[in-house]
Amino acid sequence: MRPNLKLFNAFLIVAETGSVRNAADKASRSDSAISMQIKQLEAQLGTQLFHRTGRKLELTVAGRQLLVHVRQAMQQVDRGLRQLKQGLDLERGNVVMGCSPTIAATRLPQVLSAFSERYPGIELLIRELTLAEQLECLRQGTVDFCLGPAFLHATTDILFEYVVHDQIYALLPADMAPKGRTTLTLAEYTMFPALMLSNDSGLRPMMDEALRCAGLSLKLRCEARQISTLIAMVRNGMGAALLPRIALDDLADERSTALRVTHPDMERSLGILSMRNEIPAPAAQALQHMIREMLPRTKASESIVRGQE
Q: pLDDT by residue (tens digit) across 217-276?
């Protein structure tokens, strides 16, 4: 006998709702149409599936046995359809991702290049956002997920998944940097004119907290939103900037020197930010997986320590 999925689906709905009327309402069909399908299925199987007691239907022994197998079969069909949809989504889906500018300009392109090679049909839209903007976009649903720093204050609706650490460095004009050093204490940094990221960056609250805990204050000279602006200021001798290591990957310049900040050691956690209890689309899941796999393995350039030892 060739199975008729429509008949089995009608049987499943009647079995779960307990009556033809309820099944008809759930399936948006007429009572007579549902009744006819049940009769056709019973005729094909050669056995009665329901005991009819007024308007209520109860499964017979054969009906109960069939229900177990029909449920399993329908679950297999649903699973197969989901897998098919996921495969199609990976062929022609799209991902909108928020990302901190420092990551977007340094490590992320390697990941995106590999992703596009593996999934050429998926369209990517990368939005460079501060941490505050990332959290807002996640809540508004305008991005699938974000890649950025951990937030200092706990939040119940957004999940942070750690991916990699990023140490903090002091970038100084070459003629201001202490000779033969690879590190600089936070207290020593405060002796220089300070070039700092603005308050809306994900890094600034962490830096302010470290200074507060150490009982230190800055000789602030200038604030800027973009790290590239601070690097240009350092190159022109305006002062020293506290910057994430990841932003200095491609910095090969005789005019500046980068020293790792110690006492206290300063570093930030970078990871995937997403709405808690929401399952991302298959294309977004694939990109998240590649970020987890590749981002920690992308090697930083060693050019920034040239001439320090």
A: 999 999 998 888 999 999 999 999 999 998 887 676 789 999 999 999 989 999 999 999
The fold for domain 96-305 equals: D-Maltodextrin-Binding Protein; domain 2 (3.40.190)
> What is the Cα–Cα distance from 71 to 166, expressed in whole angstroms?
50
CA distances from 89 to 93, 127, 144, 256, 274 (A): 5, 21, 14, 46, 20
pTM of structure: 0.67
Tens digit of pLDDT for each residue in 181-232? Answer: 999 999 999 999 999 998 878 788 889 999 999 999 999 999 998 888 999 9
pLDDT of residue 3: 66
Q: By C-alpha distance, which of 248, 289, 251 is closest to 272?
A: 289
Name, in order, each residue with C-beta under 8 angstroms of 6's C-beta and a sequence gap of 6 or more: 37
Q: Is 110 exposed, middle or buried (0-12, 13-18, 19+ CB in 10 A)?
A: middle
Least confident of 88-92, 143-147, 224-228: 88-92
Question: What residues pair up with 164 in beta bridges, in sequence order?
Answer: 270
Parallel/antiparallel/unpaired status of strands 56-59 and 50-53: antiparallel
Which residue ranges does the chain devote to CATH 1.10.10.10? 5-85
Q: How far is CA 222 from CA 184, 194, 215, in A?
A: 20, 7, 21
Residue range(s) in the chain whose domain bears CATH number 3.40.190.290: 96-305
CATH classification number, 5-85, choose in 2.40.50.140, 3.40.630.30, 3.40.50.1950, 1.10.10.10: 1.10.10.10
The span from the CA of 199 to the CA of 22, in Å, is: 59
β-sheet bridge partners, residue 26: none
- Per-residue confidence (pLDDT) for residue 262, from 0 to 100: 94
List the structure tokens of 229. Answer: 């602006």
